[in-house]
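Bench log, entry 3. Co-assembly request; chain sequences pasted below exactly as received.
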Amino acid sequence: MQGMLVIISGPSGSGKGTVVKRLDPSHGYALSVSVTTRAPRAGEREGVDYFFRTEDEFTRMRQHNELLEHAVYVGNYYGTPRQYVEEMIAKGKVVVLEIEVVGALQVKEKFPEAVLVFLMPPTISELARRLQCRNTEDRLTIEDRLRRAREEIALIPRYQYLVVNDEISEAVGRINAIVEAERLRPQRCADEIEFFSGN
Amino acid sequence: MQGMLVIISGPSGSGKGTVVKRLDPSHGYALSVSVTTRAPRAGEREGVDYFFRTEDEFTRMRQHNELLEHAVYVGNYYGTPRQYVEEMIAKGKVVVLEIEVVGALQVKEKFPEAVLVFLMPPTISELARRLQCRNTEDRLTIEDRLRRAREEIALIPRYQYLVVNDEISEAVGRINAIVEAERLRPQRCADEIEFFSGN
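Structure output for the full assembly:
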């Protein structure tokens, strides 16, 4: 069976990280591994947690179109390596990329066969509650994130699917259904069609 | 929740009828009801088994673009009424239309938001076996159907999904996943998006 790239995206506080952790690897899911220029922390393994690269190497990858998207965060570069994603897809894996909205749309442009899923909390009030519960952000940051969430919601029509994360196991179930359905796209079943035509 | 039209199509012998009968009505499925010019048989009810119409009424419906597709069979006309489909969708139903390949593509043209599912048996040999098992058709008819099946397989790229009917409960499960995923399309979630934006 052919693999695919599934992008789980949505506003900060929508629960992307929690949902992605709950996807069952026995369903063929594999997390995308990012490239970064930051130094490895204790216990972090090359090719598992990150691909660690120098700034020069990162720049070269970017120039050679080897990154599906990239961003700067606290002075370090992060990116999604095209080659890793393509290798995992060739092995039949469902590569899952958890990423914020702007990055997700960048990836879709470079990798049109990717499946874009917008994850959102049931209401803006619930989003505010979740951001407050994190307890790591001050009031101004929360208001800033809520404003950004409203802007991101305007981009939902550019996504293939919308999953409301009201209850986590239901959100995971919906993502499983999306993956099962997307595996049945004719363009992902070339082998089956050829086999059938030849019999 | 918004409904939709799901078209289950595929070669004669692919198992369309059996699969459609197994779709659980509690999932919101409703079978499409055809219009016909043939006389009702004993026990057949108007609006349940068929909408019974005269030839003049049928012609008028066709001229007024009230049919999503139509065909002649043994001297009688059959068609899919647009109004019934639209009313059921408005009620949130997943309207299921079981139809041969040419008719399915006709419907998709008139009703682009329909979801087209191509059902196929695991191999052409299996298809031949199924047609022989029916025991109602002579050798020439079977060969004719197999030739037609090969032509229809060439049309798979115009379908949204391909479901191999190797084991019936699995085929039904795949159709359920397709419906669950298609319900998460942003264009079918306008209410949720509006609700979210307003909160």
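Chain A has one domain: 4-197. The domain at 4-197 of chain A is CATH 3.40.50.300 (Rossmann fold).
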